[in-house]
Amino acid sequence: MNKVNKTLFLSVIAFLTFGISSCQKDVINENIEPGKAYIELNLAEDFLAGDDFQFETKASTRATAINPVVSDTTMKFGEHMVDVQLIDTKLEDMKLNRPGSGSGGGIKAAAVSQINRIAIGTHYRMIAFDNNGNYVTERAYVHGSEAIQDSMKLDAGKTYSFIVYSFGSTTTEPATVTYENGVKTFDNVQLTNVNQDLMVYVLKNKTLVYGTNRLDVVMKHKFSLITTTIEMGSNMNGFITALGNVKFNNVSSSANYKFATGGISYNNQNYGSAPVSFPDLGAGLRTVTSHSTLVINPAATDKSLSFGTFAMDDESKTNYSVPNIKVTPGHKYNLILKFRTCTQEVKIADDVLNWNYKENSNQTGVIGPGNVTIPNGQLLTKSFTAPASNYGFTFDFLQLDNAFNMKINGQWMVLDEDEQQIQFQTYNNTANNEGIITRNIEFIDGSEYSDKSGSANWNKWKIPPIWDLKATSYATPIIRVSISKAGAISILGSKSSNGPLVQLRLRNKARFNPAIVWNATGNNVIEINQKVSNNTIVIGRGYGKAKISCTQ
Question: How far apart are CA 526 and CA 410, in angstroms?
Fold first, then answer.
């Protein structure tokens, strides 16, 4: 290209670029009325993270008069113990993410905020006041749908104050404000008798420009939210079977909020309650987490959580209470109750749960003792006597391939007309004389073990098949079966070798036998059974459990 043509070409490009740029600039404000300012909001929400208070009973060695940080607390629940923690969730996030958080310095008591995006579909309301504080206009919006809703239109060049508020609902608009003495000014705007999760943003004296004015809005929660989790220790038997009339006590029933000052006045203070809602327990859970509970109350360290009824393992209580719970407005907490029991083992012979039979060359059975073939489908049985133990019995499996059942004092532990045992795999073994085998157990969250080896063949939960899991310590078994002193059965399983234990549940036709009786003061006869199905393996141990006093 010669110099002349090149110059002409660049001139054309520059002209086109300028033209396109000019058109784009015009598009931004082509629908804006002359002299008007349109308001767009960038929404977020905020909980404060404050000091390191956790529970107000047992003083920590770190406590000082200036910053009385207190430690977690241990309480009794019948013959069980419960470790109580109240964790400020934002503070905990900071501890996890703060550089150098592993040092002994800890987190300072100053309040720190962390911001999260508002959920799509959340209803909120915005109100504008002029520079004299007089009411101008308001709009109700649904977050995520603002583009199809009318923008708030105000006068460019003028100064306004704004309030934005929401109750976090995705179904209903927030209640309208009222005005003290009926005078619609910024100083008088208020919400009364609020009993929902109020979030508020206030912006004062904002001068608007012509066109679209985008405001970063961070609505702050004004009350406390507490999520309560109840956990059973892996050495406990049974399940959480009843939680009734659970509530936080001596809190306010509602509050009034003044936007101009941020002042909160509490109604029925110390005489209200906040009900705690848990999901359905079904036949029983080992861990259960409540829905978030709104607690309306000024800062305090003397609130309590009470249970009208509470049944777990072999204990049932009425009017059980956890005292001295801290709440601070604008904070979000996790209240964790970790239950445990203290036991000592009542041992039996270590080899009662040990056999490892490999499949034969044509996969029709296993090679048993003396090189004798045991065909697929035949039942392997081993019996032993367990001595008396007042807290039942536990079986820990280091390896399993890939099913089992038990008899306890003559009663089958699990009843299943199709499988006759607890089956951890689904597969077609018709060619090897077994027919269709169907899994009848899964984790409490609905996940399950895979049916094939090799990570490429694992299921969507990426959990290996049971036979590929191998525990190296009885402290971290792959399967734990517990029999309570009342004969109730609970089964826990790991999703990885040496991983944490998670509740398992039976499915299909499988069910625990309600007729099981455990002798707390006499001997118990236990029989372990496995149907031969190619490789047939049980490696583990069984032991009785006797309750002892907990030292702490």
Answer: 8
